[in-house]
Amino acid sequence: MTTPNARTLSETLGHSADDRLLVLTSDQLGMCQASNTGVYESLRSGLATGASLMVPGPWAREAAYHYRGEAIGVHLTLNAELDCYRWRPITNAPSLLDGDGGFPRTVEDLWDHADLDEARRECRAQLERAILWGFDVTHISSHMGALQNRPEFFDIFLNLAVDFDLPIRLEGTWAESGTGFPFRSLAADEGILTVDHHRL
Fold first, then answer.
1. Closest to 96 in 3D by CA, of 127, 129, 76, 118
2. 75: closest CA among 134, 121, 29, 129?
3. Which residue in 17, 50, 116, 127 has a CA-CA distance of 20 to 30 Å to 31?
4. Cα gap 25→154, rounded to integer Å
5. Phi and psi for 109 in degrees, rounded to 5?
6. H and E: helices and strands count for the chain
7. pLDDT digits (tens, 9 = 90+) for 10-30
8. Which of 20-29, 32-41, 136-145, 171-180 has the lowest mean pLDDT?
9. What pLDDT, on a 0 to 100 scale, did the predictor assign at position 198?
10. Cβ atoms 164, 170 nearer than 8 A
């Protein structure tokens, strides 16, 4: 992770700049019961060091029930790309629904039709709901990159990170050229921690 003053997270945490730290994160906690079981098993066995909760997921409440203080962030979700799992907003957000009554299947559909105020309220509600359920939220991430890869959506993402003083999981600098804006620099300018490298 890189800190705003160009120190690495290793240095910020008391390690040398040359030390390598590895964070293994499991996404999709809350999507289904199998995901919950697998994510918690990976965390509790030491295979993963953190996870991300999909608050609108149909099994998110069950994930909250089994939470024991693990390092879990919120995987802000504005898409439902799968045919067999169709989650929907937790707020009244008509522009965030597709014809099936769930979130849009693609980020392009989301970007084309979403009202930014509705998206902002939905993301804040997801984060607040996780906190209400008792999660000590460690970071935020974006499902399918929906909040990272367009400037107007990144503003929502970054403002939440600032408001809640949370790190954000961003793709590496290699991804910035495809978006056309310096999302990593914008996060650093606000004092937000982010990983140096991110791969799926």
1. 118
2. 29
3. 116
4. 21
5. -65, -45
6. 8, 4
7. 787 788 988 888 888 999 999
8. 171-180
9. 60
10. no
Judge contact between 87 and 63, C-beta under 8 A: no
Residue 169: count of CB within 10 angstroms of its CB = 21
Structure tokens at 116: 């930014």
Alpha-carbon distance of 166 to 149, in angstroms, equals 19
Measured in degrees and rounded to the nearest 5, phi and psi for residue 179 equal: -95, -25
Position 125, amino acid? A
Please report the sign of the dihedral spanned by the C-alpha atoms of residue 58, residue 133, residue 27, residue 146. Answer: positive
Residue showing tokens 């995901």: 35
> Distance between CA 181 and CA 163 in Å, rounded?
22
Which residue is associated with the tokens 């069950």?
62
Q: Maximum distance among all alpha carbons in the chain?
A: 52
Task: Read off the pLDDT of residues 132-168 as tens digits, 9 standing for 90 and up.
Answer: 999 999 999 999 999 999 999 999 999 999 999 999 9
CATH code that applies to domain 9-189: 3.20.20.370
Residue 1: per-residue pLDDT: 47
Residue at token pair 């003053």: 5
CA distances from residue 130 to 56, 61, 133, 182 in whole angstroms, order as listed: 10, 9, 5, 29
Task: Output the six-digit token pair for 8.
Answer: 């690495």
Q: What percent of the chain has pLDDT over 70?
A: 93
